[in-house]
Amino acid sequence: xxxxxxxxxxxxxxxxxxxxxxxxxxxxxxxxxxxxxxxxxxxxxxxxxxxxxxxxxxxxxxxxxxxxxxxxxxxxxxxx
Length: 80
Description:
Blueprint: H1 11-17, H2 27-33, H3 44-56, E1 60-62, H4 65-68, E2 75-77
Helix pairs in contact: 2-3
Organism: Nocardioides albus
Domain PIN: 17-66
Keywords: Hydrolase, Magnesium, Metal-binding, Nuclease
């Protein structure tokens, strides 16, 4: 399936083994969603992830051309 992650059943454990920890979605993240009006008709989950990355000052990797086209230097092409 295009755009869908085919993940193993123990993905959470595998992430933990690599030192990757979950980042809860907070009210502060939700407030940032409104800052990305250009994404108002885009995938809601993508909007949430972008808002979360912005609020936390994190780099966001994607191959989504619309997200890459926003022009933010912290949204980077995952294909490179």
